[in-house]
Amino acid sequence: MIDLHLHLDGSIDPEDMPRLAELSGAALPSTRQEELRSLLSVEPDCRNLGEYLEKFQLPLRVLQTGESLEYAVYRLLERLSGQGLCHGEIRFAPQLHLEKGMSQEQAVSAAAAGLLRGIRDFGLSAGLILCCMRGEGNRAENMETVAVAERFLGRGVCALDLAGNEAAYPTYRFADVFRRAGERGIPVVIHAGEAAGAESVRTALELGAVRIGHGIHAASDAELMEILRDRGIFLELCYSSNLQTRAVGLPEEYPLERFLDRGVRATVNTDNVTVSGTSLKREYLLLQERFGLSGEALKGLAINAAEAAFVTEGQRAALKERIDREFPLWLSSGEPKGK
Ligand SMILES: [Zn+2]
Question: Does domain 2-331 have CATH number 3.20.20.140?
């Protein structure tokens, strides 16, 4: 399997929190695993995006030094490899890790070191996606993220993203940031059509996005779905997360089938392993259960992820070959559902 949409700060295992706190010189409200888990993960009855986003406060507090970022990325790759992933693209916003004096460059350098060490030790490929942040008054920080992405492109970093409050800060406001990314040849993905409508996805395409984070509200716009299909734009779907943040009201309203029927290429992702309390395997199984997808259809979604990954063509061929060979095995293995 391949996860293309996975936030570092939303995917910290409670088990790693004491060590990360130590490496960040931060205090934890508790060292008990169960208490930490409830501080890091939403309840099944999560009511809205606000409640969901609260869960990022504690992990961000323990990711404020180079040592902690490197360790967090390394440990995440270890877990992903153990869960059957052959490739993962991990995203984070360097500008959210500067509270103790790190520069964005130092933050990315540390994360890249953890990534390269993890790739070497755990037998999977991986890349970092650097998130610019939606917000007010942070243009300089976003421009700095573009500059750092350019510096580390091909040395751990594979793309640039736009994350944050989509409803409050519309996509078009960040046009100059992504114009610069385009000039510098940095691949672009943008969170769009999650907390805002189809027009946000259209703007993301205008800003050069080749993949859309979520994109679920594109399903309300037939013409846009044709554009997505014709341009071969991939959607990074995150089913559990979308239900928890109420981006989609009910499971049966989830537009996966609408995308598949229209030939829009979708991929399956976790968004946040810990905050959402999920795993990539669980996401595939939930979609299978909800929509009655065949093993072949699920495999098609996994192949889409290989097609969409920011890798060399040689790596892409190897990923597709591996998925083709190994993907259905765990589906028919009769393992219990769940994490
Ligand atoms: Zn996301």
Answer: yes
